[in-house]
Amino acid sequence: MARVTALLTMLIAGAPAHSSERIYDVLYEVRVVPERVGAEVTLRLTQPRAYARRFTFRIDPDRQHGFAGDGALKQSGATITWLPPERGGKLSWFASLESERKNDAYDGVVTADWAVFRGDDLVPPAKLLKLERAKSRSRLLFRLPKGWSSITPYARSDDGAYGVVHAERSFDRPTGWMALGRLGVLWGTAAQTRLAVAGPVDVGLRHQDILAFLRWTVPALRATFPAFTPRLLVVGAGDPMWCGGLSAPASVFLHAARPLISENGTSTLLHELVHVAMRLRAQRGCDWIVEGFAELYSLEFLLRSGTISSRHYREALELLGEWGKDVDDLFTRHSRGAQTARGVIVLKALDEEIRARSGGTRSLDDLARELADSGTVSFADLRARAERLAGGGPVKALSSAKVPGAPRA
Q1: Less packed terminus of the chain by CB within 10 Å, N or C?
Q2: Is it the case that residue 182 has pLDDT exceeding 50?
Q3: Digit-coded pLDDT (tens) for 252-272
């Protein structure tokens, strides 16, 4: 009798009688409010029993505020703790989407006709207390003004909702660049990557040029980084957005006025795509390593794809060498132009040394893939990996004589 009662309870709760899956559904419903320069966000949680039990959000009070919800809700400074009802409930807040970067430039803008922002700004990160083996099924749905459309790095289902999937995270929240409004979107495919180039109409975004550029270069990028994202969104817009490029998961922002290849031979767009591919975070003082890899490989992929010649490649390296020759310390919090240029020269020399000492069986590509898998980099880690790939022993390219500010081994 007890077994029958338990079976009936499972069926009433909506769980398959012989299934071990513990799925809870999360719907992020976003209603854009242009006149408030932001969006009303509602998290709707649905579950057959208390799989997801406590959400602890780390918020930016200037960006996410006005929290209200079912169940128990507590705010302490920049922490929101939500204990939803057993079968789920809803939590709502307002997200400000305008984000000033510096010098009157923005990396998040909402106008009467369009909005461009990172999905991270909609939903704050959270730690989740849940039942063992419980998994989320998360979706993102926009409620937009008449005439507006949306695009995100995620695939969209027939009902208009985007499936938000991050297998490496315990809490699936939307991330990456997003565009809403009166948009122009161009689709394509290159090297098993689904491509989309999107931006507000009438901002001068060169959709065809960008898509052609991606078709030329993404195959070379994927050859070096086979785990490159299967979906890539390039969002473009004009002023007052930041006049450069910015990366995010599976997506890149590029200002509409930015050239695909600069006069010095490098590419802002490819630089940001390397960030997308490597997903590399710098430990303290090592930003030059992350930025150096991105800048060097922006050149490498232009060369390997046949987009630039060997002569132009060498000339670009010479220009970078001249730019970075007077740098006396690479180990600062943020790598600026000259420091990144010097970092390129250090890494290029490292590549040549690894190739020479390994008899051509190893290269900087192997080191880059290892770092991409690790997710973070320190100078000690870089040096240790390089020494192993080179066959053991110190590498001259990373000696204190070659790397300004480096500690002695």
Answers
A1: N
A2: yes
A3: 999 999 999 999 889 999 999
Where does a domain end: 258, 285, 306?
258
Please check whether residues 206 and 337 belong to one and the same domain: no
Can you give the CATH number for the domain in which 68 is found? 2.60.40.3650
Strand order in the sheet with 64-69: 64-69, 88-96, 38-46, 22-33, 134-143, 162-164
Angstrom distance (rounded) from CA 207 to CA 191: 19
CA distance 357 to 363: 10
The two structure tokens encoding residue 344: 């390129």
Cα gap 375→397, rounded to integer Å: 23
Give the distance from CA 364 to its chain's centroid.
23
In terms of residue numbers, what domain contains 340? 276-398
34 & 174 share domain: yes
Residue 407 lies in a domain: no
CA distance 353 to 65: 53
Say how many domains are in the chain.
Answer: 2
Res 21: pLDDT: 79
Q: What is the DSSP letter of 397?
A: G
DSSP 34: G
Q: Where are the alpha helices (DSSP H) in 198-241?
A: 207-224
Instruction: Kindly report whether the global pTM for this prediction surpasses the value 0.85.
Output: yes
Contact 235, 256 (CB under 8 A): no
Query: What is the spatial distance between Cα 401 and Cα 361, in angstroms, rounded to a whole number?
Result: 27
Furthest-apart CA atoms within the chain: distance in Å: 83
- Mark whether 116 and 160 lie in a shared domain: yes
Measuring CA to CA, how many Å separate 73 from each of 39, 57, 86, 175? Answer: 21, 11, 14, 24
> What totals of helices (H) and strands (E) does the chain contain, helices first?
8, 22
User: Which tokens hold the place of 131?
Assistant: 């039942």
219 and 307: one domain? no
Q: CA quadruple 137, 246, 207, 108: dihedral positive or negative?
A: positive
Mean pLDDT within 331-339: 94
Place of tokens 């302490």: 76
Asked if 378 and 302 sit in the same domain, the reply is yes
315 and 213 both lie in a single domain:
no
Q: Do 347 and 251 fall into the same domain?
A: no
Average model confidence (pLDDT) for the chain?
Answer: 92
Same-domain pairing of 372 and 242: no
Taking alpha carbons only, the member of 269, 229, 275 closest to residue 250 is: 229
